[in-house]
Design brief:
Radius of gyration: 23 Å
Largest sheet: none
Number of domains: 1
Order of helices and strands: HHH
Structural class: mainly alpha
Helix content: 40-55%
Length: 92
């Protein structure tokens, strides 16, 4: 098998053309969506409690805040939005 045949159309490395992981991401989302809808219809889907949702949000926030460059970028964007620079006329 050549190296080119080990990559799918999205450039992801594959060892087989079988299975969920080797599928196109759009097809994966479609199948996962159907599974989620079926679970809700059957009443076996996970429902987030307020405590679980809070803990998950905190965990995600902690992960994001470790990236100092990303946090600085967020702060700059917020500062620029709340304090837009105005052009100064020459001579002022």
């Amino acid at each position: 098998m050549t190296e080119a045949s080990n990559n799918n159309e999205n450039g992801r490395r594959t060892s087989s053309r079988r299975g969920f992981a080797s599928m196109d991401p759009a097809k994966q989302r479609e199948i996962a969506s159907k599974g989620g809808k079926a679970a809700h219809q059957q009443g076996v889907a996970h429902e987030w409690s307020p405590e679980e949702a809070r803990a998950a949000g905190r965990k995600g926030g902690e992960a994001v805040s470790r990236n100092k460059e990303h946090m600085a970028q967020i702060g700059r964007k917020g500062g620029e939005a709340s304090h837009p620079r105005t052009e100064q006329k020459s001579g002022e």
